[in-house]
Amino acid sequence: MIIRHLATDKRFPGIGWATANRLWTAFGETIYNRIRDRELKPLADVVGAERAVAIVDGFGMLCDEVEIFRWLDRYGVAPRVAGAAARVWGIGAIDRIKADPYAMTLLEPWQDVDARALRLGVVLDDPRRLAAAVEQALAIRFRLGHMASPTPVVKQLVRRLLSSFTGDPSRPIDVALANGRVVSPAADVLQSRVCRFMEDEVARLISERVRRELPRSDGKLILDTIAKVEQEIGYLLTDAQRAAVFMATSCGVCVISGGAGTGKTTVVRATPADAPRPYRRQIALRPQPASPVPSRLPKKRPLRRAKHL
Length: 309
Fold this sequence. Notes:
This protein has 309 residues and is mostly helical. It contains 17 helices and seven strands.
């Protein structure tokens, strides 16, 4: 692994595959100790002084990384993943992975982590494996846009992930709930602890904004800004866009939703840039999901009608 890392990592300029392989041929496993102990002379004898310094300095900023690489190298972990593990967990990476091999699902696909864990002696019904499968099932659902999922759906995914597990299909979920890595916010609904935290934080922030006392809206400033934007774009805002502008300058929380091309960005442009700060920090644009039947966009009114405002 360290050879691949030396040959591909940008922290080691001038160290390609040929140079890295020469180091391994010269030192073998002892290369880890030589880098860790900053033994420049033997390294320089093989690759030259400048490259030896580059190697030692590259690892010196994260000296613990050498031990992590040595340990993970035994199990075929890619150097990119080993580097990420070192950055995420530091020197505690080895203890973290020993305690729970499935912690690596944060960095690697489930199939790779599970196969490695089973080779290392983790049994099929190990509680760590069962709980990790539930978390992985919820992660799959999250990537599909679901913050929480029905228990039957999660159970089906867990069966696929634990194809070799023949025990009670409800047990993995019970284990995950018991150790707190998964929560049940409602009957027959499961959610990862991370998603629960995110939703709680969003709810807290929205609650704070809704209760916040907002400064009084300046109607003339808003109308002047709308007129300026209309002059720039060459047509008048629709009634719905105008309503959205006034909503954005009078609400603690504002979500502007609409399909592509309906003028969400135009609404934001028409919101006064020098309005009181609360108005400018809480406008959220949310594109609507694509519809199988295209909706008709509002017809743009020509600018010549601006005099009737």
